[in-house]
Amino acid sequence: MTELILDVQRASEAPAQPTDAQIHTWASAALRGQRDTAELSVRIVDEVESQELNHRYRGKDKPTNVLSFPADLPEDLDLPLLGDLVICAPVVAREAEQQRKETDAHWAHMVVHGTLHLLGFDHIDDAEAEAMERLETELLAGLGIDDPYRPAEIRE
Q1: Measured CA distances, 45 to 17, 21, 25, 52 (Å)
Q2: For position 76, what pLDDT does the model report?
Q3: Residue 132 needs a FRET pair 20 to 30 A away by CA distance; which of 6, 106, 111, 125 works?
């Protein structure tokens, strides 16, 4: 079992945010079998901060659901730092409503998705995207959460 040291920062007053315990559960699920020990920070933000960070680091001038910032450590440093996730609460809530998902299920997906990015998973090409989506779906199923990629009309 992975030992996860989690720091949750709340820079948003948006409603329907998950508890620290929920975030810990979801991140731990993504880490299982990948790392023995990990330190992770999750910052929950509003759209202004998300847009600023997305513009600065990805060149996209709009808020986004989750940003992943892997720890950039020298190889000779043996520290469990994994990195930081920045999750935009209003975007997650809006997407959950638009996609007709339970808000907590979408939050879980964002935490799992972001954590997998910190572990080195990506979805740049089709093969990577398929592998990452399959892993996300498996991890979420283990948490009792429906396939986040299945169309809403099939989930209902």
Answers
A1: 11, 18, 20, 11
A2: 82
A3: 6
CA angle (71 as vertex; 145, 36 as ends), nearest 5: 60
Buried b (16+ CB within 10 A) or exposed e, 22-33: bbbebbbbbbee
Token pair listed for 31: 């880490």
- Which of 62, 64, 60, 78 shows the shortest CA–CA distance to 117? 64
Q: Are 54 and 63 in contact (CB under 8 A)?
A: yes
Digit-coded pLDDT (tens) for 83-138: 999 999 999 999 999 999 999 999 999 999 999 999 999 888 888 889 999 999 99
User: How many other C-beta atoms can be found within 10 angstroms of the C-beta atom of residue 72?
Assistant: 7
Cα–Cα distance, 47 to 100 (Å, whole number): 21
Who contacts 52 (Cβ-Cβ below 8 Å, separation ≥6)? Answer: none
